[in-house]
Amino acid sequence: MAEEFKRRMHLYIIQTIYEAVCNPEGWSDVVGEIRKITGATSAFFMGIGPGAEQNASVVSKHVDRNLLIRADFVDIVHTVTASLGQGGTVALDIKRNGSTWQAYLADMFDCEGQLVIAIITKEGQRRFILGLNFSYEDQADVRLANELLMALTPHLQIAMGIHRQMLKDREKAERLDHFFSQSATPRVIVSDDFRIIESNRAFERLIEKNGSFLKRSEGFLTVASSALRQEIDRLLARSQQHAETGHANIAWVKEAEGGFGWLLKVEPLGSKSLNVTPFANLGFGNDAKSMLSFCKMGDRNGLTPAVVGSVLGLTTAEASLACELAQGNAPAEIAHARGVAKNTVHNQLTSIMARHGFHRQGQLLSFLSTLSLFIG
């Protein structure tokens, strides 16, 4: 009976883990259930990067998160996990009369016992860990906890990978949204069956020039491009599932022929949507409607400052700098070629990254590489 209960709890925790992918608040439930089934006194998830407490994010149960993000504790976690690989574990003794850091842990957790730390994911200096604190009274549960961690770690790694990718996609969509803020963006509002309800002049010009991909047929939108239609269908389904939030969905679409691609944006419209459209006389009613915005990209001219500037909302000088970076030039080389101080280029680069949520230069270069791919 006890084994059956543990099996059911194990399956329940796995289900809770995958539910947390789409609901970040669910990680609190995950760590709570892991604490219960392992018998730990307290438990926490911690994400840490290089640096002190400002780079630590924590979800905890039965321990104050403010204690966990202290620089001293973050430094201890950094030190003891530095040589561990992904999936590795380490057990730290907690003793009031032990070494300096053992006494620090005893004071922090207000008990003596053992702290088990497992590395769920690790990317360079960045890592996501699970910590379980066992008092001496709970020591018999440590072995069972290690067995459970071995079983749950693959699921936690998969869930965190999906979660990170979703965050990256969301950040990319937010950056691309600059491109759709232009008044000349082709837009069309369609019903569930692709009946055209309203469109702007830019959209009419778009279908005139690209009739082999998009056209109006007897009042309905016909999408001849299979790649574009597949992505529209996917985004429409996703936007209708989350219509109450009014969030837009943005995607890249690369055509197999023609050397160009599309940036596509789908926004749910309706009585529950908070979106404002450029169509002043549009009545929402109760029927589901969606606004599609298209940007055709790619004229075989490669990545240009004009394209980069319009997508990211950069000044001419900033867009030029971004293009030079994408071509493989280092900031020092760019500064030398322009006859300016390295700090000038560095400050421009820092400004670009800060405004658009790029934490590392590599993230900006990755984004520019993707943009380059889609413009041919």
UniProtKB/TrEMBL annotation:
Source organism superkingdom: Bacteria
One annotated GO biological process: regulation of DNA-templated transcription
GO molecular function: DNA binding
Cell inner membrane keyword on record: no
Domain HTH luxR-type residue range list: 311-368
Keywords for this protein: DNA-binding
Bilayer-spanning residue ranges: none
Record's protein name: DNA-binding transcriptional regulator, CsgD family
Upper lineage: Bacteria, Pseudomonadati, Pseudomonadota, Alphaproteobacteria, Hyphomicrobiales
